[in-house]
Amino acid sequence: MLSLSCHCGQVRLELEKRPDFIHECNCSLCQKSGAIWGYFQPCEVTVEGTTAAYSRSDKSEPGVSIRFCPRCGSTSHFELTDAKIAKIGNSMVGVNMRLADERELSGVELRYPDGRAWPGEGEFGYAQKSRIIGILKGR
């Protein structure tokens, strides 16, 4: 189990397991939210505390609602929008793995999807080769 929190501690997340992989997407939403995403089934994530929401306005049907702490501004997770749930079911929650201690993620694959070039459906292309997260020297 992993325990994560925003900077001020008002929003807390409990994860039943480590993610299978993490995405560091280069789209404007992911970059500006400062998030790298681990993906989980909704039943594998418990969120405590009040969050605020943002959905992008540059898409006619945004697929996710980014959640963040209204006190410190840390991005905590995303939930699928009602429109996306209607298409694929409530099958995913994305958790900002920057809230985790990197040592707890050692051995997890970090992938770099090319979200800037992604048309919104289908598989991602990748902007660069993936790497395995390891413990940095001096930590």
Textual characterization of the structure:
The chain has 139 residues and is mostly beta strands. The protein has a single domain, classed as Metal Binding Protein, Guanine Nucleotide Exchange Factor, Chain A (Beta Complex), CATH 2.170.150. It has two helices and eleven strands. The chain has helices spanning 28-33, 82-88; strands at residues 2-5, 12-15, 21-23, 37-40, 45-48, 52-54, 64-68, 75-80, 93-96, 109-113, 126-132. The strands form two sheets. It has an eight-stranded mixed β-sheet with strand order 6-7-8-9-4-3-10-11. It is globular. The protein starts with a strand and ends in a 7-residue tail after the last strand.
CATH topology: Metal Binding Protein, Guanine Nucleotide Exchange Factor, Chain A
Total number of helices = 2
User: For the residues shown, what is the average pLDDT?
Assistant: 90
What is the CATH architecture assignment?
Beta Complex
Number of separate domains: 1
Highest CATH level, the class: Mainly Beta
- Strand content is 35-45%
Radius of gyration, rounded?
Answer: 15 Å
Proportion of helical residues:
under 10%
Major pleated sheet: 8 strands, mixed
Question: Secondary-structure map with pairings?
Answer:
Layout lengths: L1 E4 L6 E4 L5 E3 L4 H6 L3 E4 L4 E4 L3 E3 L9 E5 L6 E6 L1 H7 L4 E4 L12 E5 L12 E7 L7
Question: How would you sum up this structure in a few lines?
Answer:
Helices cover 9% and strands 35% of the residues. It is mostly beta strands.
